[in-house]
Amino acid sequence: MSRLFPSGTPATAVPHSSLRYDSQRHFGNFTRTRRKRVKTQHHDTFIKDVILLPGPKCAVVVKHKAKHRLHQLGHILNGFEFQKSWSRGDVEAHIRHAFVDKLPPDISIELLMACGNKLIAPKLHAGQELCAELIHKVYKSKALYVRPLQSLETQSNDSSCEEENPEENQPSLTAQANESFPSGSAQQSSSTVSVYVADDDLLPSTSSNNNNYNNYLSVLATLSDVSSEDEELQTAMLASLQSERATECTAPPVKEILHELATKITDHTKSKFNISRSNVLDGALRGFKRGSYQPQNGIMVRFSDDLGFTEEAVDLGGPKREFLRLLIQALSTSSMFEGEEGKKNLTIDSIAMREDRYFFAGRAIAVSLIHGGPPACFVSPTLFSCLVHGPDRGQPVLEDIVDVELRDKIKRIADSETMDELRAATLPLEDYLASAGCLRPLRRLEDKTLLVKDLLMFQVIHRVRGPFERFRDGLRTLGLLDKIQAHPESFRPVLCWVPSTLDSDVLDNLFIIRRSAKATNRWNAEDAVIPFWRDYLCDAEAEGTEKLASILIFATGASRIPPLGFAPQPSIEFLHSDMQSGSPSQLPMANTCINCLKLPLHTSYNTFKTSMDFALGNTHGFGLI
User: Fold this and answer.
1) Which of 81, 297, 370, 373 is the most exposed place for a label (fewest CB within 10 A)?
2) Count of alpha carbons within 13 Å of 18, Cβ hemisphere only?
3) pLDDT for 486-496, tens place per residue?
4) How far apart (Å, rounded) are the C-alpha atoms in residues 505 and 541?
């Protein structure tokens, strides 16, 4: 032992400090030192370039001369400062204030982002809104594009958005993918997925060949699945790509879709409707509830005047169009719907629920569209979104609430800036909050956002869930709802309000003028009246679209051009002489069954205009002036 341990100390008695010293000398110090995490600086604001596009047709990224023109017009804000606390409404309000001289308050806007050469709208989760915080995450370094839904009255136009040379300086696929995702995402995906571009056909372009762009979207979608650094960004981007692809590939014209559905209609069997113009909705409900009624049957309409006398009219199309026009008007003003004109939501009516009128309201809209009637054009964007995506994904806004007192109280909650203001704003609504299932303690000011959202969902959607389900079931008639959900953008203009496109040129081109033989007295007389007819259309356009609609009603029975169009094509003939008296008729006549308008032959425009105005203002039915 003395040889092994010269110092005479046993092995087990070696001091612990010397062993630790030897270990540290050979292997280094094992003592852990806690790293100080670098604190990330969080800013309450961020800056972004905002570009106001001149019109709704702009769908590509502005570059070069187009961007320079927008700069000159004051349509580009460089380094616009956003507050991260801004809601979607605050973002729009501040953008409108910044473009107060360029963007009228009555024109709606949508916020877009660049994806290659295309402009797309980010698609978010159900319940999400494009607030400033989400703009900061999703857009990253990209500019925010503001596209108005109507053309702006500037020296620019929609063509300024188009590329002068779309082939020039086109970014590579890798550069576009890196630009679309956060820093580091592209590097991570490049080690996992190899993308080989065989030729330039995969690069996005503004040409009419949509297949190339679809390939580009497919590649971007593949890259997106690999990277997961920012889940919200990935979700928004992928949904946007899917939406863009669906819009590019599967948005056929609504006329083609309705023509396909109309093939189910058979004219061998007719469903009869006996209608009084003073109560169109009641007569329609009786017809729909009749046991022999089938949606695929043709429609036979018999009108009676207020005294109960049957009008002398055989339905070859005209009475049906008038019936469907009056029916859609009656639905929009009925107690089943509420809201401002053109933005109607469902409301609760106990009588309508008991008589299942909500189902027949949906059926009436489906029948009108598929049987050649007018579009609805009164459904609100919120209700349309619920029909397409389901009520649980609805996003109602404050303007959907019709009760002014309730709307003001909810707005007071949304505008609260302190906890005291928030508690004071909720106090008058305690009973309503309890009924809505929203009576809960509010501990933070941020709780108001979720509270307002829940109140809107209850008042606009959950409260009318039963009527909504029956209304949606009615829209399933002849398979219409399935087509609406498959092609929502095709059906949006025929269900939601859009500005009327009816003008003098549209009406002039709509009617085919049937002339007499050339080089005859009748030809010469007609030749003098045709300019009167076109001048009358121009004067009617100056009075407003309602006057033009009255001309169309007089000739066809429809106030708008139906989505399915007219059959037969509207035509104009001339009243050369009365078969009974032998003298020319002084007033115009119409046969709405064949969409024929017969014009009187006058030698002065004032006389022609007076006779037209008298006829349009005093017509109450078929053959009644």
Assistant:
1) 81
2) 5
3) 999 999 999 99
4) 10
